[in-house]
Design goal:
Radius of gyration: 21 Å
Shape: globular
Strand content: 35-45%
Number of helices: 7
Structural class: alpha/beta
Number of strands: 21
Distance between the termini: 39 Å
Length: 424
C-alpha cells in the first residue's frame, strides 16, 4: 500500500493546478481505496483470487519519458478499421484515425459534464476506487445520433519497451447516440520483459434504439497484472453484443455490470478465457434487469491448461415489478490438464413472476467418444483435439458479423491452441 500512496502523492504534485473538483474526487477515491485495501480471500466475491502479488511490485505511474520509439506498424491492427492508438498510457493522435461522426472529448470537459460517471458511490470494488484516484489515460468517445459506422473503431492500448514496473489506470467512456450503430474493439496488448499493471475502467452508455458491438481483447504480457471494470447502461430498445477474449496476464480480474434500464433492451454477453502455465483469470458478471420486456443471454467459456485456474461468478437479478423478462446464463469449461482448476458459481435472483430464466455450468475434459470418432476417420490425435477444442471455442464468435474481425479472433484462438497443445 505504501508505494500506491507514494505514487498518488507524486501524481498530485505533478498536476498542482488540476481542477479543484477533480482533485477532490481523486482524494476521496484514494481514501476509499485505502479504507478497502486489496481484496483477500475473506471477501466472498473475491475469495478465489489471490491479489497479494500486486504488492510485491513497486509499480509506478507512467510518465511522458516512458513513451518509447513508436512502432512502424500498429500491432494487432485489424484490416479495414478506424484506429485509436495509445502507447504506455499516451494517446497518439497523429497515428489515429476516427470518422467524422465520432468525437473525442477532453477528459476534464467530460468530467465536468458527467460527474455522475466518476462517482464511486458505495462501491466495494477497490480497483474502481484506485482507478478513479489515479486515472491517467483513456478517452471519452461519443458517437453521434443516427450515425451508422461501417468500419470497426479499434482502440489499441499497447504497453511496450518499458524500463521500470509501470502501471496505468485508463478510463474509457463510450457513448452511442440515439439510433446509432457501431463496433468498438477495446484491445490491450503487451510486449515487454518487465512486469506492469493495467487497471482499466470502461463505461458504456447506449441510447434509445442504438446498437453496439463491443469486443474486448486482453492480450497483455503474461508477466503482467490486469484488473478491469466494465459498466454497460442500456436504454429503451437498445442492443448490445459484447464479446470478451482473454489470453494474457498472469493475473486477470474482470468485473462486468450490465443494467437493462428501459423497456425492450437486449444484451448478449459472450466470453472466452484461454489460460496456460500458472495464469489465473477471474470474471465476475452482474446482469440487472431493471425494466420490462428485456432480454439477456450470457455464454462464458474457459479453456484451461497446465496449472492455470479460472473463476466465473455470474449473477442475474430480476427486479420486482418487471414483466416479460427473458434471461439465460451458461458457463462451460474445458480442462486440458489434470492440474488445472475451475471455480464456477452461476446465480439467479428473481423478485418478479413474469419471467423466463435459466442458468447452468459444466466443467469437463475432452469428450473421449468425439476424439475416438475423429481418429477412426483417419485424423491424427493432435488434429482431432484441435478440432474439438476449436469447435468448443468458436461458439463465442457467433455474434461477430464483421468478417475481418472474426477471422482475426479465430486465427488468434487457433494459434493459442496450436502452441498450447504442442506442450501438453
Amino acid at each position: 500500500m505504501k508505494h500506491f500512496q507514494k505514487e498518488f502523492d507524486e501524481l498530485l504534485d505533478y498536476w498542482p493546478d488540476e481542477d479543484p473538483s477533480l482533485r477532490d474526487l481523486r482524494l476521496k477515491a484514494f481514501n476509499k481505496f485505502k479504507e478497502l485495501g486489496l481484496p483477500n480471500k475473506k471477501w466472498e466475491e473475491w475469495q478465489f483470487t489471490d491479489f497479494s502479488s500486486i504488492n510485491k511490485f513497486n509499480f509506478r505511474l507512467s510518465k511522458d519519458s516512458d513513451l518509447p520509439t513508436l512502432p512502424k506498424t500498429i500491432p494487432g491492427r485489424i484490416s479495414n478499421s478506424y484506429i485509436i492508438f495509445i502507447v504506455n498510457g499516451h494517446y497518439q493522435p497523429q497515428l489515429s484515425e476516427i470518422p467524422s461522426s465520432v468525437s473525442i472529448a477532453k477528459g476534464l470537459d467530460h468530467f465536468r459534464s458527467n460527474p455522475e460517471l466518476y462517482s464511486i458511490n458505495n462501491s466495494s470494488n477497490p480497483f474502481l476506487s484506485l482507478n478513479t484516484s489515479m486515472m491517467n489515460s483513456g478517452l471519452p468517445i461519443y458517437i453521434k445520433n443516427n450515425a451508422i459506422i461501417e468500419k470497426p473503431i479499434q482502440v489499441v492500448y499497447l504497453t511496450t519497451n518499458i524500463s521500470d514496473e509501470l502501471m496505468n489506470h485508463p478510463r474509457f467512456s463510450f457513448n452511442l447516440g440515439e439510433n446509432s450503430e457501431s463496433t468498438i474493439i477495446e484491445q490491450y496488448i503487451g510486449s515487454t520483459s518487465n512486469s506492469y499493471f493495467v487497471n482499466a475502467v470502461t463505461q458504456v452508455n447506449i441510447e434509445k434504439n442504438a446498437k453496439l458491438n463491443h469486443v474486448r481483447i486482453q492480450e497483455d504480457d503474461q508477466t503482467s497484472h490486469h484488473t478491469a471494470y466494465t459498466y454497460y447502461n442500456l436504454n429503451k430498445s437498445s442492443i448490445l453484443n459484447s464479446t470478451s477474449i482473454s489470453s494474457g496476464s498472469k493475473l486477470y480480474r474482470h468485473n462486468i455490470k450490465l443494467v437493462l434500464n428501459d423497456e425492450g433492451a437486449d444484451a448478449t454477453l459472450n466470453g472466452l478465457s484461454l489460460t496456460k502455465h500458472s495464469q489465473h483469470h477471474d470474471q465476475h458478471v452482474i446482469v440487472d434487469h431493471n425494466s420490462d420486456a428485456c432480454h439477456s443471454n450470457q455464454l462464458f467459456k474457459y479453456i484451461l491448461s497446465d496449472k492455470s485456474s479460472g473463476v466465473f461468478n455470474g449473477r442475474v437479478i430480476v427486479r420486482e415489478s418487471t414483466k416479460q423478462t427473458d434471461a439465460n446464463q451458461s458457463n462451460k469449461n474445458l480442462l486440458l490438464s489434470p492440474h488445472s482448476l475451475m471455480n464456477a458459481n452461476p446465480q439467479l435472483e428473481i423478485y418478479a413472476e413474469d419471467v423466463k430464466c435459466s442458468h447452468g455450468s459444466t466443467t469437463g475434459q475432452i469428450d473421449s467418444e468425439a476424439l475416438f470418432y475423429l481418429r477412426s476417420r483417419g485424423i491424427s490425435k493432435q488434429k482431432a483435439i484441435e478440432l474439438i477444442i476449436g469447435g468448443f471455442a468458436e461458439d463465442i464468435l457467433e455474434n461477430i458479423k464483421n468478417d475481418d474481425l472474426k477471422t482475426f479472433l479465430s486465427n488468434n484462438i487457433f494459434s493459442w491452441l496450436e502452441g498450447t497443445l504442442k506442450n501438453e
